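new request in #modeling-help
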Amino acid sequence: MAVTMHDVAQRAGVSIKTVSNVVNGYPYIRAATKERVEAAIDELGYRVNMSARNLRTRRTGLITLAVPELSLPYFAELADAVISAADTAGWTVLIEQTSASRERETEVLSGRRRHLTDGLIFSPLALGPDDLGLFTVEYPLVILGERVFGAPADHVTMNNVAAAKAATLHLASLGRRRIALIGAHEGERVGSAALRTTGYLEGLAEAGLPQDPALIGEAGLWHRSTGAEAMTRMLDDGVEIDAVFALNDALALGALHALHAHGIDVPGQVALIGFDDIDDARYSVPALSSVDPGRDQIAHTAVELLLERIGADGDPAPYRMVVPDSRIVGRESTGDVAPGEAARIVGVQPGGTDVVTPA
Amino acid sequence: MAVTMHDVAQRAGVSIKTVSNVVNGYPYIRAATKERVEAAIDELGYRVNMSARNLRTRRTGLITLAVPELSLPYFAELADAVISAADTAGWTVLIEQTSASRERETEVLSGRRRHLTDGLIFSPLALGPDDLGLFTVEYPLVILGERVFGAPADHVTMNNVAAAKAATLHLASLGRRRIALIGAHEGERVGSAALRTTGYLEGLAEAGLPQDPALIGEAGLWHRSTGAEAMTRMLDDGVEIDAVFALNDALALGALHALHAHGIDVPGQVALIGFDDIDDARYSVPALSSVDPGRDQIAHTAVELLLERIGADGDPAPYRMVVPDSRIVGRESTGDVAPGEAARIVGVQPGGTDVVTPA
DNA sequence: CCGCTAGTGTGCAACGTTGTAGAACCGCCG
DNA sequence: CGGCGGTTCTACAACGTTGCACACTAGCGG
């Protein structure tokens, strides 16, 4: 049936191990031998059987990326970046969709598919600090996001508070006084919603603006639909606003839709800024200002840390916490550029790397 | 190190083979034995070693989905649907991004990662009918799209010509006479661009409207950016239009952006319809009318056909060609609904299944 | 009480690869 | 010319699982 090393060896008149050596780039092989083997490989169309190799080497060459849903553009773009980064390093990515359900997120950490890959890059959305125990695993793990801190794993996160504060201050600097927030999670103390809300409140304080509960719009899932609903509710309630900070771009695009439906001009009457800087932001009408949290760098760093950890083979190196630089990207929806103009970076929040020795 | 069946067997006081039987649901096992084994598995935290199982069974439980890029929302949503469908059936999906390059698409069909999975769902964008030979492979393959026909593989495609014609006729039925096309590929004879353009021309003919080369806008890659550029070119050239049919939604959103930048009202001055019905379409401003080619059904059917083929184990069953129903989805950008209203289905093009005996 | 079937469990031999250890050869130094 | 270091190649034994064939028991019909 399938061609094996055995067949190649026979054809080339060498031992099976020599074929293996050629395939794996072992240096001490006479050029002539190597050529014979390579010719045999070509003629027979031989391909290494990965299952056998994986069994023998206890490595699969695969890593898992677990995200809530690919339908969410932020995660689709993140997945794209992670796959590309892994590919460059010769690794293959397997994507798990958790739908942000506790059950599926737990599955990912220790379920039946866990063993298929050599490591995990995990962006949890349902599990939180109370589940820290679940994150104490003995395989290489990189955690993304801001729901879980202190786990014995490398961590790549973003500048949530500082960037949200900067976004809020940017709106204030445009002279806006009634700045609404869309996407809050009431009572939540961890996660992006809480952190970005904190940044928003800090921004208001620094700008000397009062807090007003009416300006805070809840939205459980950060989808376009929920953004539109939250915005609609606020408008229907007659809340007076002149700016909106949406906690992600999907919410912002939904909110934009609702504003449009209410006949409100953006940025004329209401300025709008999102968070994530997804591709869409550049092409919405009007083009959406946003916060670029450094997505490519996050993907890149996550893969790099994971592969390093996989290579290190269980040595208890200190865990790292990496935060990329983030940027405030000004476009039409905040009036930073005219229609048709390219975006302007109107602010940068520096990131950094912390080293945490394991507890 | 890792727990193996051997450890479990020892602990449960049974043979290794009995553990295997329990794990695999072999029926002839005494309940008491089964419980003992399961208890041992739980206590030791045993997980099947997939590499070993894969080697032995010559199956991996993985399938590959090859798409151009996950950053393109259509493919992200397709991937989401494929992963979900596969997951329901107990299978895992590995995503390959080809960036629509010939080299990478060829890699996917026979490259080093090919062996990792039991089958392939492939949406080619660079390879075409001249490469038919490459598609003659001896592993289970389902081809998506409309670039390659006649390969010895199952095929899931869409109603391109009929749906494009219906979209064009819909614009005509709104009284539009100068209907532009965005996304044409000049000289191309296969692929979505050619087919949808054919549908467009048929639609014009049936509506009694003249063809006008000035109304046809080229756009190589179907991205938002190229859609915006093509639209801008046409507007800057002073071409008079009252409607636009964009060959996909990304183009349409880009075009919408350009129309907005030129101060043109949609749908007041120009009606706009896209193709794909991606999630974005629902939340753009104004909400974008589109053609729903039956994406979920495509994903579902593709997985179903592939798994059937994998299960059939090389028997030469006739190849099938499946076309889902497609729908014209009317939203604000064609004035079919008012802002804030839900979409209306304004047309359906029935699909079907053809059986093709292998050549 | 023999033979048969259904139920329950086991031992052996792969699956295709790579790590380890070492054999065989070469040239060359002392 | 003995021995040594570098080069080239090979034999063997795993890696952890499952397919196959078979052993044994109990119950039951003839």
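bot summary: Residues 160-293+327-354 of chain B form a domain with the Rossmann fold fold (CATH 3.40.50.2300).
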